[in-house]
What we know:
Blueprint: E1 3-5, H1 14-36, H2 38-41, H3 45-66, E2 68-70, H4 73-100, H5 105-131, H6 133-153
Antiparallel strand pairs: 1-2
Helix pairs in contact: 3-4, 3-5, 4-5
Amino acid sequence: MMLSVTDFKPIRLIWIAYILPIYAIVISLDLSDVLSGSLFQAFTTYDYVSLCIQYIGFLGVICYIFGIRFAVPLFWKLIFLIDVIDTLYHEYNDWMALVSNQTTLTELLENLGLSIMIHGYYVLLWIYAFESHAIWQKTILSESSLEDNDHEVS
Length: 154
């Protein structure tokens, strides 16, 4: 099955309190771009692909929190790597723009705060893609045990 809960652990629900503010900020910024029209005027194909990768990564974090097996680990590893490279590129450009434009301390602190918050997102996505063997293994084991039961019955 492509989508199944294989390793739900209630303790992971604590991460929702950390990740919800990040999602709220990102979604509100994206919605403001849509409502202002800048999403359709100033965005390039690269920006649209970047947004898709970001939201797919958000889906991966939600899948980890709830112990859901979705797609395959290789898919999530690629999403993680592409998203990290993209974010590093954007963060570097944002910091250079902030430093060169004589920005205020408030703007610098906001950017620093968002950068720190994003690290948790990447930790969770990394764990889901690379370290969540129980999420991926249980389904493989249960599928093989079902096959074994079918052989025993016949």
